[in-house]
Amino acid sequence: MEVPVRNMSGEQVGTIELAPEIFEVEVNTGLMHQAYVRQMANARLGTHKTKTRSEVNRTTAKWYRQKGTGRARHGARSAPIFVGGGVAHGPKPRDYSKKMPRKMRRQALRAALSALAAEGQIIVVDELTLDAPKTSAMRAVLQQLVGDDSVLVLVAEGSDVVEKSIRNLDRAQALRATYLNVRDLLSYDRVIIPQAALDVIQSFLGTASEAEVE
Fold first, then answer.
1. Are residues 15 and 85 in the same domain?
2. CA distances, 147 to each of 10, 123, 144, 152, 172 (Å)
3. For the chain, which has fewer Cβ within 10 Å, the N-terminal or C-terminal residue?
4. Range of 71's domain?
C-alpha cells in the first residue's frame, strides 16, 4: 500500500510503501476485541472491598429478646438485611489480569493498523519536531495535517518537546511507538506516524521480528 508522505505544513513531499505484512492483513475483529478486553482488564486495580457481617463495627449485643416479640429471631444488627449491616457476597480484592500470547497481541495490532490504513486514517509525516514545547505551535501543525479530527501521534522515542506540546490538547495524544496498543489506535479518528516511528513499528511487527521469536 502506497501512501503520501507529508511535511508539518501538510504538503506532500513524497510517497512511501507501507509493509503489507503489517498494514494489509486480514482485519480480525474478534482478535482485536480480545486484545482490547485484555488491556482494559489489566488496567483494573481490583481493590474493591465490602465488609461482611463479621467485619462491620456494630454492637454484638442481642438486639431484642429471643421470644415473645412476634418478630424473627436475631442476634445482632450486623446481619446483611439491616441498614448498616454487612454485605453478603460482596466484591473482594482480586486480580483481573488476563493472559494473551505475544503473537496474538501483535497480530491484533496488525489488524488494527490494517483497518486504519484501509480507511485512510493513517497519515505519514517525514518528521515531527519543535524547537521548544509550545501547545499553540503543535495545534497549528495538527490543524494542517488532520483538521478538527482527534489524533493519536506516535513518536519513535521519548520526546519531551513533542509530548509536552500535545499534553494540553483535548483531542490529541502522544504515544511512543513501542507502547502501541489496540485501545489507543481505535480511540482516535486519525493516527500520525513519523517515518522514524514507522521504522520502530516495522522492527517489532514485521515478519523478520516474528522469525527471530521462533
1. no
2. 10, 12, 6, 13, 12
3. C
4. 50-90
